[in-house]
Structure formats: C-alpha cells, structure tokens
Amino acid sequence: MVPAVQTVSCAAALAMPASAAALPAGIWTAFAVVNKVHSVWRWYRWSGIYSNPDNFSQLATGHALNFTVGDYLGVRIAAHCVLISSKIIECTDQQVSLSKAYRKWKEALTGTYSAPMTCDWKKKMGWVSPSSTQKWSLRFYRVIWHVCYIARRTLKLITYIFKLSMKTMDAIEAFSLSPSTRNEAVNEVFLNSIKCLNSLEQNQHELLAKLQKNKQVIEKILKGVGTVYNADQLIDYVSGTMEKLRSVNHTTQGLFKRANGAIYELFLDSMHGLAALSGTIEYMPNFLIPKDEEADDTLYGMEKSKERYPPIHWVTRVDCSQSVPKEKTKRYDFWEKEALPFQTSRYLKKITQYSLFAR
C-alpha cells in the first residue's frame, strides 16, 4: 500500500509543469537561510543538553540502551513517541512564554507601569528655577527609561518568536523517520521521559478536570468500542495511575541526581589527578577543583574562605617587611574655614623654598 502511494505521489510530482514547480530565487534563498539557521540551532540545543552535568547519567543510559537494544522496533517506536511528546511540550511552554512576553511588551508600549524616578535637585541655572530644572530632568530621564524599556521588551519578544519557530521546526522534524532522528530519540529517551512526566505531574489536575468535563463523550467512545468499563472507572484508573507515576518520577529523578553527582565528582577527581601528575595543578580554574566534603566549616573560629588560596597575611612571615598602603591625602577646598590655615602654611613653605633656591 505504501509503495503504491509513493509511486502515485512521485508520478504526480513529475507530471507537474515546470512553471508550477519553479520558485523565485529569493524564496529559495530564504528557505536555505532558514534551514541553515535551524541546523545551527540544532547544534546549539545539543551543546546545551550535553554540557549540562545534570543530564550525564540520563544521556549515558540512553546511549547504552541505543548500543545494546537500539535496533529493536519496539524500543525505537516507544522512544520516538516520547520524543514527539517532549517536542510538543517544548512548543507549548515556549508559546506560553511568548504570550507573557507579548503582554509585557504591550504594557511597556502603552506605559501601563511607570518606574519611579528620582532626580537630584540642582542649583539655579540662569533664569530657570531649580524646581523647573528638576521637573524637566525628571521628564527627560523618564522618556529615556521608557524608550530603553520598550527596546528591551521588543528584543525579548523577537527572541521568543525565534525560539518558538525553531522549536516548531524541531517538532516537525521529530515526525520524520530519518536515522539521525531515530538515534536522537533513543539517546535522549530517559531525558525526554522525565520531561514528559514532569509536565504530566504539573498538569494532572487540569487533565482530570478535562476528563470529568468530557465524561459523556468518553462514555460514548467506550460504548462504541464495546468495552465493559465506563467513564467513571476510566477516570479513577487514570487518577490512580497518575499517583503511581508521580512516585516513580520522584524516585527516578532522585536516582539520576545521585548518579549525576557521582559522575561529576569522579570527573573532577580525575582532572585533579591528571593535573597533579602533569604539574599544572596551580593553573587549574576554581570550578575544576573538587570539593572537600570532610573539611570543617570553621577554621580558627572563622568561616572557611571560598577562595582557593589563603590570604597573603596568613602565610607571610612576621619579621618580613610588609608594604603598608598609603593613606589617601584629604583634598581640601581652599576657601573652607578649617582648611585655610593648612593651605596658608603650605604655600608659605613653598615660598620659603623658592627664596632659598634663588639665593
């Protein structure tokens, strides 16, 4: 059946006239640009997933599953369904974020919420009074803030629109059966499963409310199928299953969290050991230094420093000469009453030095 449909569709495509199949060069260029941007977005999304330490154990388990039983049809179908569900959830969440960003952009455009402004009280400038100067300065700063706020909200709105378009293309691509999509579905099956379970747990009350609202439709469907169960039994079964899935989700997330912590600590210990063997440990950044869990939180009655090395005065010998920072000299106004004797004596001293040098 499927080869026959493919043959008919290919024949219909070949039978189309060249004028109907041809598109202007500008449209093809736009398609090419969009596809190129989506390919870059795909790499960006993968880098964010694989660089997150909280996803190490899920990805490792998914790759191991793909290596062992990834060729089985049942595994691929289940993983592909989970992938499609996770992509749809991402599109829905992004659409909600876009709706909130649009509402804030609209509020910024209409000036619904204005930020409180403060302006310094300046001295009289010519014939303009200080109150007028302060009022016009306040209006100027408020206009500048409003323009910047609109620009920032516009940029965020454009960013959310771009993300929604890219995630929509990801969802469309998830329905394809390309080898890369199949491998991605199996490799990220545990990560996508946790995402789907979290979304289901957050929206379980809404799901049960929708089932109760459409009870008559469910009852008709069950009668048409010919099953012995009614709508109330189905809703009770879904409610019980949701509670079980909730406990399973929390347990699974706890196990993966412990595994991610162990993998990350093992990675830090390995990097620290290699740096110690190669003699480059002092050049390692602070985020690659493993944490000492057995160390006491207090040291000599003080809180343990977060820095990697102790302060310099802890490791400096007492008999060594230490450079004491010079105190900053206070600058006086010449016409201040308390500074006038100091300024007068300083200038008298300079006059005396110049007279001695002239002799």
Describe this structure in words.
The structure is a single chain. The N and C termini lie far apart (118 Å). A two-stranded antiparallel ribbon has the order 1-2. It is extended, with a radius of gyration of 35 Å. The model is unreliable at 1-20, 293-306 and 323-344 (pLDDT under 50). The protein has twelve helices and two strands. With 359 residues, it is an all-alpha fold. Helix 5 (73-110) runs antiparallel to helix 6 and helix 5 packs across helix 8. The chain has helices spanning 2-15, 18-21, 25-50, 56-69, 73-110, 130-174, 179-187, 189-202, 204-213, 215-225, 231-278, 340-358; strands at 298-299, 302-303. Strand 1 and strand 2 (302-303) form a beta hairpin.
In short:
The chain has twelve helices and two strands.
Give the termini distance in whole angstroms. Answer: 118 Å
Number of strands: 2
Uncertain runs = 1-20, 293-306, 323-344
Q: How can the largest sheet be summarized?
A: 2 strands, antiparallel
pLDDT averaged over residues = 75
Order of helices and strands: HHHHHHHHHHHEEH
Overall body shape = extended
Structural class: mainly alpha
Portion in strands: under 5%
Round the Cα radius of gyration to an integer and report it: 35 Å
Which bin fits the share of residues in helices? over 70%
